[in-house]
Design brief:
The complex is a heterodimer. By secondary structure, chain A is mostly helical. Chain A contains nine helices and no strands. By secondary structure, chain B is mainly α. In chain B, helix 1 crosses helix 3 (34-52) and helix 2 packs across helix 3. Classes of the chains: A mainly alpha, B mainly alpha. Chains A and B meet through helix 2, helix 3, helix 5, helix 6 and helix 8 of A and helix 1, helix 2, helix 3 and helix 4 of B.
Chain lengths: 191, 95
């Protein structure tokens, strides 16, 4: 909705101006609106709650530190997600260097269905270039344009990675999707 | 070897991005083509499973822990909502 977008953009400009002036309420307001989205994104990228909380806190600290130089030109959300993304990539690199095993407590298995856990484990095994478009487009419901902006790539490149990512995920979920065999029979009379 | 358009149509079908008429046309085509049927079904199932999967929930505890991390690293932040009673630190009763 263009009107809603315009309102959101106007509100962001006000918050950022107040933030630059040192108003503590402004960061609280920004955290209130974007905290959950950034946490969900970082949790999906990193695969564990502790790192996600850490990356979310650091994202908002960077907003605070850079507020004086930030141009509030309506691209705040993209900028915010880019900060979160860079922090996630740094953390993933650290994990790789330290050879930390993936956190199996991701999301609290007891809270989630077996399917959800399997899907997220498969997602976390995908290369970053495939995981990122899947998280942004299929989970966070970003448009291709917005996701491409966050990743700083073109829309065709984004779509290409998204589709390759879906195929890679499908291959990882192979046996889980076996249940679909009989639906295929409904689609194909020769089966 | 299938061409690029073939794969693109399956991708669009999987993400429910095709116009309704084309969606049905794809399903009709799959009726006589087991390989196409398999591709369409498994790809759509993959997207559906991904979209239906719940991520980590943003709990009140996470909300408060993130606030504390921001404070601890020098961020001056004023939360909009007060901390719930069960997360507030209580001093022991004075004797």
């Amino acid at each position: 909705m263009p009107n809603e977008d315009a309102k959101e953009s106007l509100a962001e400009k006000k918050w950022l101006a107040r933030l630059a002036a040192g108003d503590a309420d402004a960061l609280g307001a920004i955290y209130e609106v974007y905290g959950e989205r950034i946490f969900r994104y970082t949790a999906r990228m990193l695969g564990n709650r502790t790192d996600a909380e850490d990356a979310t806190a650091e994202t908002f600290l960077r907003v605070l530190r850079q507020s004086a130089t930030l141009r509030a030109d309506g691209a705040f959300r993209t900028w915010l997600f880019r900060i979160a993304r860079n922090l996630c990539i740094d953390k993933l690199r650290q994990h790789k260097l330290l050879e930390l095993p993936p956190d199996m407590q991701y999301g609290g298995s007891e809270e989630k269905s077996a399917l959800s856990v399997t899907v997220h484990q498969a997602l976390n095994q995908l290369p970053l270039e495939y995981r990122e478009p899947l998280v942004l487009c299929d989970l966070e419901e970003y448009s291709a344009k917005d996701a491409a902006d966050v990743l700083n790539i073109s829309v065709p490149a984004l779509k290409s990675r998204l589709y390759r990512g879906r195929r890679a995920l499908r291959d990882k979920l192979g046996s889980l999707l076996e249940g679909s065999k009989h639906e295929e029979r409904n689609l194909s009379q020769t089966d | 070897m299938k061409n690029e358009t073939y794969h693109k149509l399956i991708d669009l079908y999987a993400g429910r991005e095709l116009p309704e008429g084309l969606d049905e046309a794809m399903e009709m085509a799959a009726f006589n083509d087991p390989e196409l049927s398999h591709e369409m079904t498994t790809m759509r199932k993959t997207v559906d499973a991904l979209q239906a999967s719940s991520g980590d929930t943003f709990t009140e505890e996470s909300y408060q822990r993130i606030l504390m991390k921001i404070y601890a690293r020098g961020g001056n932040i004023m939360p909009q909502a007060p901390a719930p009673a069960h997360l507030q630190y209580h001093l022991p009763m004075q004797g």
